[in-house]
């Protein structure tokens, strides 16, 4: 049984930075990590990837050969990857014995809310390779500073959750930068808990464009509340405590904590001055030493 994360989110939400930071953190607490780049438009990677979709297909080649734009090209690439799933499975096979997998997907939101190719790729990997994956949906925290954009982020998160049908964690990324965009209308808990969105209406009405669609906005907020599925956790990828708390949440969602006996959950201390202390403590527990 192999565990991992499917990292998704709109362009600019920090997916590649997340994969880089998360892989470093997981390595420091003793896990062997493999990052799989499935974004054919990402040709400048800050991390060393174990599998790269550009070895199979490149977005620039697709756009030139088929006269497609970036969006159409990405859809074509995901369709091509689905048809060549054996290639991906073959590249993943050597990693399945002892690696934790991070899948870095493209940022085109249509791939995870409208089109089925990316979902089909994920589902085939889960079925054929016995993977246990959690979707990590990153949303830039600065959207909280604009009520209209925040509602859009809620709808996108809900749509993605329903479409992918995976264990799902929504993350407000770049939380350390949120103050740069001005004071929030409410405290941060309001945006993470996603309760009683009617309080947003007053702030939405201050924008003449939003006031015109007041009834529509209310109905959309009601849809989000009626499902009751969307909430957020926060992340500062440069803060080890923040990353550690997210890892604990992810380990519960995909079952990693139960498969490894809870070592990473019980003995990973993000407040440790040295992350190596966590590794040594965890190894000592495994070996039966106090």
UniProtKB/TrEMBL annotation:
InterPro entries, sorted: Gpn (IPR004130), Gpn2 (IPR030231)
The gene coding this protein: QQT1
Record bears the keyword Chloroplast: no
Alphabetically ordered keywords of this record: GTP-binding, Hydrolase, Nucleotide-binding
Protein name: GPN-loop GTPase 2
Family: Belongs to the GPN-loop GTPase family.
Gene Ontology MF terms in the entry: GTP binding; GTPase activity
PANTHER family referenced in this protein's UniProt entry, alphabetically: GPN-LOOP GTPASE 2, XPA-BINDING PROTEIN 1-RELATED
Pfam families with a match to the protein in the record: ATP_bind_1
Organism of origin: Cucurbita argyrosperma subsp. sororia
